[in-house]
Amino acid sequence: MGVLMSKKQQVEKVQKCNAVVSAFKEGLRDRPAPPSRTEEPVVAVEKAVDSTPKPSNVKEVEHEEEGAKPGPSATQQSSALPKEECKANQEAWSRLRDGKGVEPEDLDKVNQLTPPAFVRPKRGTNDDQPMEVDLNQREQPANEEMCEICEVWTADDLFPCRTCTRVFHDGCLREMGYLRTNALQEMRETAHTATGWSCYYCDNVNLLLTEEEMRSLMETFKQCKIIPESCLVSDEYLQYKHLVSKQLSEKDLSDEQEEDILVQFSALDPEKRGRVEWADFLYHESLGILKKFRTENSLVRLLSAKERDRARAVFTSLDQDKDGLITGAEVRRAQQSWFQKNTKETQSCNVSISHVGPISESSPASSSSERSREKTLLSSEKDENRQVNWQEFLKESVIYILAARPNSSAFHLRPPL
């Protein structure tokens, strides 16, 4: 009882402090800004000019000039629309370039999902050095006790993130405008299940990019005339990949490469609407940048403690003879297991991945050609004889673990067959 009362007193203190700080901010916001010294002479001159009497004929001339001013022409009205679109595109580029949202009081709380302001990560000097992750030592991180937004403890009313240790009130997420109504409902249904829910920090894998990596991605978008926050149909997606291939290797895509790209497009469009949403496209390209510029050792450092624990559980369930080795084919099955969250199943995948079997006919990967299937069969035969230890398994799987973070049902990085 004493512990509960102390926590209650602590919460009351936090609430009082928040109330004082918010009241102080509101007072500063309502306070009028003092006039600058440079503007005082101008104001004085304007007052002196306004105070001088004007002849009546001057007033009549001014009245006639105001009446003679023509309204906006049809061409001006038509040019206003492209200007508005250009302004919207510039604002979208600004949000993409800075990687920052707006302040909470400026959020559109009804229709817009805007991430909070953040600082992009910087790579350390030892970023590419191997990181030892002990297979037999589970980390089991405990979730935080207070809501990330309001910093108030309310026990069972908090919803945890499946990737990090942050917890949230659904009401706080709604009031701050961080999640739309349908996303809030999905969070309530999945946050306490084995499927889990990623908070707005972890859901956006684009936040893993450094400033330099983000500039590289933006430059590619600009050169390929990709407009931020717009959807892409299959032809646009394929054209974009053609342009990227010419920039990187000065070669056109082969028929096999085009086929793989269309399979990936299908994976990004699981609902078969014929288009890829901007967020899914951005996440997929962000993962591509990570694969291109980061080593596997660097990517392992991006994993959270919860993700490392799940990787341990999956490897242990596959290592039936407990010799510390699994086959390459089992590694592929494990990589597929990270995307079982899309099935919205409540069964736990932290203990076993026995439910991960062959890819169904409705899977995005099932649309590949016979030539690709033959190639896959050959690689599968080689994988059956390949032995993989725990550290190798973690390095080979890390990019797929990161790709499974978003809450979207899209396959942001299609696992190997």
TrEMBL record:
<dbReference type="InterPro" id="IPR013083">
    <property type="entry name" value="Znf_RING/FYVE/PHD"/>
</dbReference>
<dbReference type="InterPro" id="IPR011992">
    <property type="entry name" value="EF-hand-dom_pair"/>
</dbReference>
<feature type="compositionally biased region" description="Basic and acidic residues">
    <location>
        <begin position="82"/>
        <end position="92"/>
    </location>
</feature>
<dbReference type="InterPro" id="IPR011011">
    <property type="entry name" value="Znf_FYVE_PHD"/>
</dbReference>
<dbReference type="Pfam" id="PF16744">
    <property type="entry name" value="zf-RING_15"/>
</dbReference>
<dbReference type="InterPro" id="IPR019786">
    <property type="entry name" value="Zinc_finger_PHD-type_CS"/>
</dbReference>
<dbReference type="GO" id="GO:0008270">
    <property type="term" value="F:zinc ion binding"/>
</dbReference>
<keyword id="KW-0479">Metal-binding</keyword>
<dbReference type="InterPro" id="IPR018247">
    <property type="entry name" value="EF_Hand_1_Ca_BS"/>
</dbReference>
<feature type="compositionally biased region" description="Basic and acidic residues">
    <location>
        <begin position="26"/>
        <end position="40"/>
    </location>
</feature>
<keyword id="KW-0106">Calcium</keyword>
<feature type="compositionally biased region" description="Basic and acidic residues">
    <location>
        <begin position="57"/>
        <end position="68"/>
    </location>
</feature>
<dbReference type="GO" id="GO:0005509">
    <property type="term" value="F:calcium ion binding"/>
</dbReference>
<dbReference type="InterPro" id="IPR002048">
    <property type="entry name" value="EF_hand_dom"/>
</dbReference>
<keyword id="KW-0863">Zinc-finger</keyword>
<dbReference type="GO" id="GO:0005737">
    <property type="term" value="C:cytoplasm"/>
</dbReference>
<dbReference type="GO" id="GO:0003714">
    <property type="term" value="F:transcription corepressor activity"/>
</dbReference>
<protein>
    <recommendedName>
        <fullName>EF-hand domain-containing protein</fullName>
    </recommendedName>
</protein>
<feature type="region of interest" description="Disordered">
    <location>
        <begin position="350"/>
        <end position="384"/>
    </location>
</feature>
<feature type="domain" description="EF-hand">
    <location>
        <begin position="306"/>
        <end position="341"/>
    </location>
</feature>
<keyword id="KW-0862">Zinc</keyword>
<feature type="compositionally biased region" description="Low complexity">
    <location>
        <begin position="360"/>
        <end position="369"/>
    </location>
</feature>
<dbReference type="InterPro" id="IPR031946">
    <property type="entry name" value="KIAA1045_Zf_RING"/>
</dbReference>
<feature type="compositionally biased region" description="Basic and acidic residues">
    <location>
        <begin position="370"/>
        <end position="384"/>
    </location>
</feature>
<feature type="region of interest" description="Disordered">
    <location>
        <begin position="26"/>
        <end position="92"/>
    </location>
</feature>
<dbReference type="GO" id="GO:0005634">
    <property type="term" value="C:nucleus"/>
</dbReference>
